[in-house]
UniProtKB/TrEMBL annotation:
Broad enzyme group: transferase
The keyword Transmembrane is annotated on this UniProt entry: no
Listed Pfam families: PP_kinase, PP_kinase_C_1, PP_kinase_N
Transferase found in the keyword field: yes
Domain of life: Bacteria
Domain Polyphosphate kinase middle intervals: 136-310
InterPro entries per UniProt: PP_kinase (IPR003414), PP_kinase_C_1 (IPR041108), PP_kinase_middle (IPR024953), PP_kinase_middle_dom_sf (IPR036830), PPK_N_dom (IPR025198), PPK_N_dom_sf (IPR036832)
Protein's recorded name: ATP-polyphosphate phosphotransferase
PANTHER family linked to this entry: POLYPHOSPHATE KINASE (PTHR30218)
EC number: 2.7.4.1
Span list, region Disordered: 406-430
Gene Ontology molecular function: any one: kinase activity
Length: 521
């Protein structure tokens, strides 16, 4: 009998073969290339194509703020660890820079085509060109009343400290000459993030002007007695990556501190309008301490992601047909009582065909119910005015305890700040949003309640199948399961997780298999 081939050891199997792997970062840029291609698809309505273009810009921003920032940190620390495709951090950054620059050049080409198409469709984006007298008067009045009071030109000289520019901040550099004595003065105007990037001019015809074009149009009001020799727009991206501290005593407090610190993160990307003199660009990099930043000259619109504001124009003929998701009828039959509807029969909710409002209603009811002892939910991303976060805050005020897992870290890393009044430390019974690691939340994979809290713990789907025979892989759906499983205490516990949710109603435990609740921004 022939001897069997030796089984490769783990150490042998872990040695990467560079030729068999794609680079993760370059592969992601190829994905964003496909997003950009949707902006050139003539089958899509015009404003939807513009939306795809802005999405590709926003994707690229986040890519630099997190992934490239991580590689840059490795390069600065002298880390020479190679990726599975055999590239060092420095080699990856060089390849990323070349690929990203090509991608941004294509974005500008697509924007040029869309700008002409929008103009033909009756949506004009103007610059500093001449407009009729009535429009010019309105622009001047708007600038004086809405913009001029909140912008402050700041001199760039040794006597004045360089102002702080936030992440994704836009700045206008002006090279001026004083008319009285011909002295050269350099000024910086930071465009306030509180104002929209585009201003819609009054009238039936849609006409927009970008904020930087408006400021440039009225430099005589901003710099009286000066002649503008040169101006240039630039934009910066900062390191927004947060290092996960697994052993943090209080994750909420840790992330609150980390989010404050990342607002002043290292400058990763400097986007400069083409035509700015190289000495000016070098001076700005020096003043901003951005010597290590990856810079790019843009021949066109700086900040592609802001084009999303134009999509809000009320032109249904240039957008996809609006779809209104339905609300589950059976919950309406029970007068909106989610618990009663679940108790009567299983409910499966398909997103986006059925409204996410039912999940929010479920949470709100749980937050207001005095019998609820716990709310457990996995949040991937939360909006700034999140109804789910609001419900969790209300639950915390009612001294109920919320639990999360590592995916809460992902939501916080994307900028969702903790918004609870008094977050509890890990292991305490106090109300508020309490974050546990996955290992803490899954102490008992058989579903036995914790001895300390007497609350049902999370049961991952990979450990248990639904007794009703439903598949545990609920892509794009949520199952509200009412099958009785075992007797429990006469209290009501609610869990939302990528797994099973057990609700205890009238002494009977019921299961809810829920997809990770990913609320749209």
């Amino acid at each position: 009998m022939a001897e069997a081939d030796p089984v490769p050891s783990i150490s042998d199997a872990s040695i990467p073969e560079p030729g068999r792997y794609f680079n993760r970062e370059l592969s992601w840029l190829n994905f964003n290339q496909r997003v950009l291609e949707e902006a050139s698809n003539p089958a899509h309505p015009l404003l939807e194509r513009l939306r795809f273009l802005s999405i590709s810009g926003n994707n690229l921003d986040e890519f630099f703020m997190v992934r490239v920032a991580g590689l840059k940190e490795q390069q600065l620390q002298g880390v020479e660890l190679r990726s599975v495709d055999g590239l060092t951090p420095a080699q990856q950054l060089e390849a990323i820079g070349a690929r990203a620059d090509a991608l941004m050049a294509e974005q500008q080409s697509v924007w040029h085509d869309l700008w002409a198409a929008l103009r033909s469709a009756g949506i004009n984006v103007i610059g500093t060109e001449q407009v009729d007298g009535k429009a010019e008067a309105w622009l001047r009045e708007h600038f004086l009343e809405q913009v001029f009071p909140i912008i402050t030109p700041q001199a760039l000289d040794p006597a004045h400290p360089f102002p702080f520019i936030p992440n994704k901040g836009l700045g206008l550099f002006f090279d001026l000459v004083r008319e009285s004595d011909k002295q050269v003065v350099q000024e910086l105007v930071i465009l306030p993030a509180t104002l929209p990037r585009f201003i819609r001019m009054p009238g039936r015809t849609a006409r927009y002007i970008a904020m930087e074009s408006l400021v440039r149009r009225f430099t005589d009001l901003l710099f009286p007695g000066f002649i503008v020799r040169e101006s240039g727009l630039f934009r910066i991206l900062r390191d927004s990556d947060i290092e996960i501290e697994e052993e943090a005593e209080d994750l909420v407090r840790y992330y609150r501190s980390a989010i404050k610190q990342r607002r002043r993160g290292r400058i990763i990307r400097l986007e400069m309008e083409r035509g700015v003199a190289e000495p000016v660009e070098n001076m700005l990099q020096t003043l901003m301490q951005g010597h290590e930043a990856m810079s790019v000259d843009i021949d066109g619109f700086v900040g592609i992601t802001d084009l999303a504001e134009l999509v809000e124009e009320d032109r249904p003929d240039l957008k996809f047909t609006a779809y209104v998701p339905r609300f589950p009828e059976r919950i309406r039959e029970y007068g909106g009582d989610c618990f009663a509807a679940i108790k009567a029969k299983d409910i499966i909710v398909h997103h986006p065909y059925e409204s996410f409002d039912v999940v929010i209603a479920f949470l709100k009811q749980a937050a207001a119910d005095p019998d609820v002892v716990a709310i457990k939910q996995t949040l991937y991303r939360a909006g700034k005015q999140s109804a789910i976060i609001r419900a969790l805050i209300d639950a915390g005020r009612c001294r109920q305890v919320g639990h999360g897992d590592r995916r809460a870290q992902g939501a916080l890393r994307r900028g969702a700040e903790p918004a609870v009044g008094q977050p509890a430390r890990a292991g305490r019974r106090a109300g508020g949003l309490r974050l546990h690691r996955v290992e803490d939340a899954r102490q008992d994979i058989h579903g036995r309640p914790s001895r300390r809290h007497r609350l049902p713990h999370l049961l991952p789907l990979r450990h248990r199948q639904l007794s009703s025979g439903h598949s545990p892989h609920l892509h794009g759906s949520q199952l509200l399961h009412g099958r009785s499983t075992r007797r429990a205490r006469c209290s009501r516990g609610v869990q939302l997780h990528h797994g099973l949710c057990r609700t205890q109603v009238d002494g009977t435990a019921h299961l809810v298999a829920a997809q990770s609740a990913a609320e749209a921004d």
